[in-house]
Each structure stands twice: as structure tokens, then as C-alpha cells.
Design brief:
The protein contains three helices and nine strands; from the N terminus they run ββαβββββββαα. The protein is an alpha+beta fold.
Length: about 160
């Protein structure tokens, strides 16, 4: 895997599928297509051949990105990352201002409305996969530490 020199403007995006998380350093203006290629290259470089039974695709175009319905509650679900279309408006001279959907400015993390540190789900394009089905597991505090928090509470109550 080729590493690139980072700049102060680069972002770290967290790509998640099942229990797998891949951190990629990307430029906010980098194309979504090149990010998909980097993600696929990173997965292959680590020796991963499949994730939870889903075989890695041969080409990056078969990767689909998703974003959380609610960034603060990713367990509420994910939707396909779509590049927004900004409606143009006409200036007094009659020229249309604004960025169209096909613009290279929209086909980037910045244009898609992502931010540094954003969580992005990914899945592989298959004929039998429902477009609303995202296999992303977000660990909770209880998953990581069990019920230790409850034990501490019980201990302080017993001491009083």
C-alpha cells in the first residue's frame, strides 16, 4: 500500500462494516471514486478477503458508502451517501450560479457534507443485497466494559 504525505488540511474518515473499521486519511476535495479505490486497496493490503461473509469486490465501483441517519446516534440506521445537487440561481446577467450535481466539487467528502472524523458505512454491491441493509456494529459502553458501572453504583450504596 502506498502511503501519502499528510497535510494539515487532510481529514480522517472512519469507514465501517460489521466489526471492521478502516481509518483513511483523505483530502476534503478528493473524489469519492479515488477514496473507494484507497479503501479497497487498504482492505486488500491487510489480507482481508471477506467481511462477515461478504467477499471483497474486484473493483472499487462496487463499493457503496452510507452515512448515519443521525450522526449522534449511528445505531438508528444508515442511508446511502448521495452527492447533493445544489440548485443554481440566476444572477442579474442571466447566468446560472451554483454547483451542479455532476460537478467535481460535489463528488468529494466536502461536497457530500462530510466532516473530519465522519463515520461512513460501506458495503459491497451485490444483486441480492437490500439497499437499506447495512451491516455496521457500533460497540456500546456495556459491550466494552460489561456491567461494571452498575457494580460501582451498588458498591457506593452499600458503603453508605
Amino acid at each position: 500500500m502506498v502511503s501519502k504525505a499528510s497535510t494539515s488540511q487532510d481529514w480522517t474518515l472512519r469507514f465501517k462494516q460489521h466489526k471492521t473499521t478502516v481509518l483513511l486519511l483523505v483530502s476534503p476535495n478528493q473524489s469519492i471514486g479515488s477514496i473507494k479505490s484507497e479503501l479497497l486497496e487498504a482492505l486488500k493490503a491487510t489480507g482481508i478477503h471477506d467481511i462477515n461473509g461478504c467477499v471483497l469486490p474486484a473493483k472499487a465501483d462496487d463499493i457503496i458508502f452510507g452515512i448515519p441517519v443521525d450522526n449522534n446516534k449511528p445505531n438508528q440506521g444508515w442511508v446511502v451517501l448521495e452527492i447533493p445537487e445544489i440548485d443554481g440561481h440566476k444572477d442579474p446577467g442571466g447566468k446560472v450560479k451554483g454547483v451542479r450535481k455532476s460537478s467535481v466539487l460535489n463528488a468529494s467528502p466536502l461536497g457530500a457534507g462530510l466532516k473530519d472524523g465522519a463515520m461512513v458505512a460501506f458495503k459491497f454491491r451485490e444483486e441480492d443485497v437490500d439497499s437499506d441493509d447495512w451491516d455496521v456494529m457500533i460497540p456500546s459502553y456495556d459491550d466494552e466494559y460489561g456491567s461494571q458501572a452498575g457494580s460501582q453504583e451498588e458498591l457506593s450504596v452499600a458503603e453508605t
